């Protein structure tokens, strides 16, 4: 199979591209920084630039006769209070986490339609199912991607193209180094410091990227997909059904305690 993965310079994307390349698949990694690997080919691409995206797909199709799978993994985190977040920071986040992923889907869909087959995985977060304190815009950007995915499933199904969202919990990567971090104003500093420390400890104790790669391989082998899949530690996944069944105020109190805000 020919597989495209975005955000392959490090973290989950690099691990996944290597993993699937070792399995014998033809893997192309699209990232702004080149990755040194014998198991996949990097095409330097900023997915927020649609011209670069279209050029990358054209380059791949010079060699490959088809594109079987797209995994939209590229993304970034953002931390800070809603009040402190600037328009520039918000737009930068949404441009990558939402617009970039949409541009990638738009670029591969003509080929997938022509071959009447294709699969697209949009990497989201368990945090997209709830507004996380001091990560409101990150939650919002991933939630927006979730809803776009639900919509496009209807639109491309006549051509046997399947699309799903994979919601991940905390994964042990260097995401903390690449987050957008807003300037935290004085009223929020004390609470933010506690939440941010906890946030980073959850990443440090997170699931190994190789486990994510193995799960995605199983997902790719499924004949049919539902819209949403969830992968992470139980303590994070349980937050989703609890949000559905618990009274809102009770749930928010649990979240405050979980984030050590009380």
UniProtKB/TrEMBL annotation:
Residues that span the membrane, as ranges: none
Pfam families the UniProt entry points to: adh_short (PF00106)
Known EC number: 1.1.1.163
Enzyme's top EC category: oxidoreductase
Gene Ontology MF term list: cyclopentanol dehydrogenase activity
Keywords from the UniProt entry: Oxidoreductase
Classification via InterPro entries: NAD(P)-bd_dom_sf, SDR_fam, SDR_oxidoreductase
Family statement: Belongs to the short-chain dehydrogenases/reductases (SDR) family.
Protein name: Cyclopentanol dehydrogenase
Species per Swiss-Prot/TrEMBL record: Chryseobacterium salivictor
Organism ancestry: Bacteria, Pseudomonadati, Bacteroidota, Flavobacteriia, Flavobacteriales
Gene: cpnA
């Amino acid at each position: 199979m020919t597989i495209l993965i975005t955000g392959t310079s490090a973290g989950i994307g690099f691990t996944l591209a290597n993993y699937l390349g070792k399995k014998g698949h033809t893997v192309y990694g699209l990232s702004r920084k080149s990755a040194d690997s014998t198991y996949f080919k990097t095409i330097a691409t900023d997915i927020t630039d649609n011209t670069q995206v279209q050029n990358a797909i054209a380059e791949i199709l010079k060699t490959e006769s088809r594109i079987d799978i797209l995994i939209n993994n590229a993304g970034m985190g953002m931390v800070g209070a809603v009040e402190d977040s600037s328009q520039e920071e918000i737009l930068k986040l949404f441009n990558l986490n939402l617009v970039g992923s949409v541009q990638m889907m738009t670029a591969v869909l003509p080929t997938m339609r022509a071959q009447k087959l294709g699969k697209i995985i949009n990497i989201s977060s368990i945090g997209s199912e709830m507004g996380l304190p001091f990560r409101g815009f990150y939650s919002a950007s991933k939630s927006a991607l979730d809803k776009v995915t639900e919509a496009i499933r209807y639109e491309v199904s006549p051509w046997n193209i399947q699309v799903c969202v994979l919601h991940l919990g905390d994964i042990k990567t260097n995401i903390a180094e690449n987050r957008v971090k807003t300037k935290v104003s004085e009223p929020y500093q004390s609470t933010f410091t506690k939440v941010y420390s906890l946030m980073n400890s959850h990443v440090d104790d997170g699931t190994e990227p190789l486990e994510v790669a193995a799960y995605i391989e199983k997902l790719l082998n499924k004949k049919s997909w539902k819209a949403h899949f969830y992968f992470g530690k139980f303590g994070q996944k349980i937050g989703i059904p609890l949000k559905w069944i618990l009274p809102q105020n009770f749930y928010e109190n649990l979240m405050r305690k979980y984030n050590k805000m009380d």
